[in-house]
Structures are given as C-alpha cells and as structure tokens.
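Late entry, zinc ion complex.
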Amino acid sequence: MAWWSRTGGLEAEPKKSVPKGIWIKCEKCTATLYESDLIANLRVCTSCGHHLRMPTDERIGMILDSEWTEHDTTLESSDPLGFKVDGKKYTDQIRSATKKTGDGDAYRAGTGTIGGIPVEAGFFVFEFMGGSMGSVVGEKITRQFERALAHRRPAVLFSASGGARMQEGVLSLMQMAKTSAARSRMREARVPYVAVLLHPTTGGVAASIAMLGDITLAEPDALIGFAGPRVIEQTIRQQLPPGFQRSEFLLEHGMVDQVVPRLELKAALVRALRWFTHTPSPDAGDTIDDSELAAAHRDDDLP
Ligand SMILES: [Zn+2]
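Prediction complete; structure with ligand written out below:
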C-alpha cells in the first residue's frame, strides 16, 4: 500500500535543458566556454590557458598538413586469456570501445607530412579504453617504427595512455620490450624519433616507448609518470612536492626537453623535424634556431 500519492498539487516544472555540445566548462577555472570558440583555440581554455583533452581526430587534423595514409586499421585484439572483470568480457569491452570511437584499438598510425616533411606519425587514442597498450597497440607502434626505418622517415608519436592493458596480462607488458626494441633499431640506423607526451602518459607506456624519443616534447601540465602520486606517497610514506609528475616538473628534472603549449606545438615539431632532417625552411625569413634544440640533446642522439 502506498503511503501517499501525487494526484494533485504542484505541476512539475518543465525541465530547462541546455542543448548538449554547445557549452563546455573548463575543469580548471570553471569558465563556461562556447565549444566552437574552444575548438578554434585547439581546446585551450580562453580564460585560464588550461589544456582540455583533445579528441584524437582533432589532434591528427591539427598536426598533419593534410590527409594521411592510415595503416593497419584492420588489426584487432583477440582475447587470449578469456579475460573477464566485473562480469564484463574483454571482447565486449573492445566492441563497445570500437563503437564509441570508430577505431579498432587505442592507437592510430599513418604516413603523412608535418611542415612538408614526410613522417610516420602515430597517436594513442585515449578515448579507447584509456589509451591502454595491448598487443594491437604494440604491433601498430612496432610497424610504424619499422616503416620509419625502411623509408628513413622520422617517427613522431603522441602518447596519452593509462599504461599497459591489464586484460591482456603479460602480453601487454611484452609490448614495452617489443616497441622499445623497434625503437632501438631506429636509433642504430640514426632515424629520428620525436616523442610528444600528452596528458596523461603513465604506466607501461611512460616506462617504455613514450620516454625514448631523441627529443621529448610535452604539453603543459600533463601528468607523466609510472605509478600515480597516491601510490608513491603510500609506498615511500612521504609527501610529494607540488607539481610532482607534471610536465614542468619533468622539464626541471631533465626527463622532458621542452614544454610546448598546444598552440605552438606544430611549429615546434616542424622546427625539430627540420633540424633532424637537415631541411631548410622554405621561408628565408624563418631561420631555424637550433641552439635550443642542440642544448636539449645528448651528443649520442645527434643525427
Ligand atoms: Zn579555464
């Protein structure tokens, strides 16, 4: 028996709704931003300069000069361990991530140009299971580096990842060694690799391929590290310094060569790629200031 019923009284007010996807709130300063303005500003908050997450499609459009030739789009993860967590099968997780993103896995690689320089570019898709690295991601990165080596084109890799994918267990951890080995063959052949660290780059990806660039650029305030700050604090029983594991902290401690705001990122990449490939600037007035780059390098990395 119901204790009360709503048969009369106040009429429910019609819900006032704001159409989705028009306004976005900055997670840092809470300013409400018009989405089209935000996109025009490469998703950097026009109020406080905070770098909001940029969807991979937009990132690819921002970095490459024009259309690219994407490779290995049909590679798919199998489920070798028959993994299940909270009653959800790994295969179902893959399927729903594919439906959400339109991508087969958490990495996209292809051949294109940046500032007119041919490159083998690769992008972690954070929207796909947190950009986690399993067998497919590892294979795509390895193939990207092998193409770079075969054609002597620089490789550029944008990382945004929660780390190795637990659903594939040790097979995910093996990708750390596999991608690092491919990168090592490039180094022996002196083919350059530019690493760009985005928020967040953590776990097994940070502990392998993301940190092996000839030059390492990072977006401002990106979280970069192996274990999270809370885990470290609990393990060492010490409070961590302010800004720990952020790009600027890593720059101060020599783990990152340059922190580059997103609005300047493509220009910085072009500058680095020209320097590595000895490509003169087409614009006579635009001289390459390579002193900064050279200072950021260890001697053994020089081409
Ligand atoms: Zn803001």
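The longest helix spans residues 169-188. Will revisit in the morning.
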